[in-house]
């Protein structure tokens, strides 16, 4: 039995190596357009060169250490902006399937970028594909998950929440509903934290793949900017008077009460009843805060964060089952700022601990936190970080 398992494991490893040694059909589009992209000033990784030969075919190279072993998403790929070597992300979008290109580009217009609450992902360029009139490529900044590395202080979390709430408030003021708000659509520009750049796909590694990439600073030491991404389900209205009404479209948050439907015998409860999407954005925003900062249980790494119960009353109102009882974003923003103004400097500087941390682990990080805290107080760093505009 053991020999059989070992043989099976060898075959599985061999199959995996064979797969990554070939460009997948879903990646071929990028290979076919590599030369055109380079002429437009965007260089793809070696894997996407026509006739590519895997670097680990050289016996001196271990495939686990090879940067070119990572395949591409069919619609999203990293690139290097020439001539200065800036890392960017390329997102392929079909303009007939959504208003993402139109809305994302509009949010990056000079007039809207002047608003400090505009934390929507900026668009550097929109490329028209020469052989497909329906496709566009959005050139976007390289970002990182909003909570990686983990938050050090309550103040760092409050700054994150403030930026995200500001952005949803900004969108609603401009009659735009995001339509797919959840934790994976919140990112940050982590470059201030990493003096050595990280790899776009394997962000635990350095960009040159010659070692691991580690944050050298906390957000209090070097504040970061957070961004809302992915406007594929977003809608922009000319007017919200009377309130708009839309047939439900399921996004990443499957817990939305108005998306439950009334018929359990049908898929998604037979969703068909039109709804106002703005209160749904409010629910998803509140549910993100509830899930990521108040109620997470079980997993050690992502277990409940302690010290954020001051957010509970606001979050409870934002996530009410009846959409008509939820506050609008004007009210959410006002209440949030009132809450923040009531927090002491000591509270904002306190460490973000988790419910399931091991006591020894907790003691180790608490000691490091206090040493850093004393230093930052001496340097007069604000308890509530805020990035430069």
From TrEMBL:
Sequence ranges assigned to domain Protein kinase in this UniProt record: 1-340
Lineage top rank: taxon: Eukaryota
GO molecular function, one term: protein kinase activity
PROSITE patterns, A to Z: PROTEIN_KINASE_DOM
InterPro entries: Kinase-like_dom_sf, Prot_kinase_dom
Alphabetized Gene3D superfamilies for the sequence: Transferase(Phosphotransferase) domain 1
Protein name, as recorded: Protein kinase domain-containing protein
Lineage start: Eukaryota, Fungi, Dikarya, Basidiomycota, Agaricomycotina
